[in-house]
Amino acid sequence: MSILPDHTLYTIGMNPSPGGHDLNLLFSGEGTPVPRHKIGPIIHDYCLIHTVLTGEGVFECAGTVHHCTAGDTFVILPGVLFSYEAHERNPWHYNWVALQEKGTHMLLADMGITPAKPIIPCTDEAELDALASMYRHIRLGFNQSDQPWLEDLQASGWLRLLLHKLAMLNREHLPSNSRDVPDIERGVRQTERWISTQYHQQLSIDQMAKTLGYHRAHLSKIFKQQTGLSPMQYLMKVRMEKAKSLMKSSFSIHEIASSVGFNDALYFSKQFRRWTGMTPSEYKFSLEKGERTSQHQNP
């Protein structure tokens, strides 16, 4: 812990290995500035999220002034002019976390955060304590090992929990398209994800429908309406595309067949030929021949 001239409390943890994830955490801190302590007006090239634990202050963003008290989270967006100032008699005590700009705007917009709506309120003490704990875990995880990437991995996990908690607190302000996905679209998305990750299993439409909570006939109907394929046709497409990709490897035909959900290599070969016009062996040979030709032309 260290003390700055304009703070009665100031501590910060720096991420020793930022950049390893889509959520690029830069640093996190905790502070209690002196009365009337002010930052700005300035612009940051990264996102900064503050959650007020006690006290109060003023946050100005995009020309609008917001009076913040305990429980309020105010978000500084990259490229947006802002300033904030601690109260003259009851200065705030807050936690903060900084994220790199990459992908941040879209993420925060999905959370309902914009320059016009940069505040997330929290009136429940237990929820506020949970937020404070997440900030603390992020900050205290840094500089604890000789493997910086592990610290980044741990801190990024806590960051995701923090952002989830803030999004839930701001649920009523989330964009409608992030909350109310039509039943048809939801069913199709779930089925596509199910098939794309479970294609190596022995799947059936009955199993998928039951697991996802849909009637078999209804799921088949909406899926074909949206994709032009039945779920089983889509499954075959995924399996064949995966098989074609694996043909570039040194795996045997039997191993490839098993990897894409076929226990019977002969049945797999029959389906692969129907899909590509070649047997697996012919397809694999054509790839190898093409590679040898390419190497010969480009020594």
From TrEMBL:
Domain HTH araC/xylS-type: from-to ranges: 189-286
Mind listing the UniProt keywords for this protein, alphabetically? Answer: DNA-binding, Transcription, Transcription regulation
Q: Does the keyword Kinase apply?
A: no
Q: Mind telling me which Pfam families this protein's record contains?
A: AraC_binding, HTH_18
| CDD domains for the chain | cupin_MmsR-like_N
Report if keyword Transcription is assigned. yes
Q: Give this protein's Gene Ontology molecular function annotations.
A: DNA-binding transcription factor activity; sequence-specific DNA binding
Annotated SMART domains: HTH_ARAC (SM00342)
Q: Which PROSITE patterns match?
A: HTH_ARAC_FAMILY_1, HTH_ARAC_FAMILY_2
InterPro entries attached to this UniProt entry: AraC-bd, Homeodomain-like_sf, HTH-like, HTH_AraC, HTH_AraC-typ_CS, Tscrpt_reg_AraC-type_HTH
TM regions (residue ranges): none
According to UniProt, the name of this protein is: AraC family transcriptional regulator
Origin species, per record, is Paenibacillus glucanolyticus
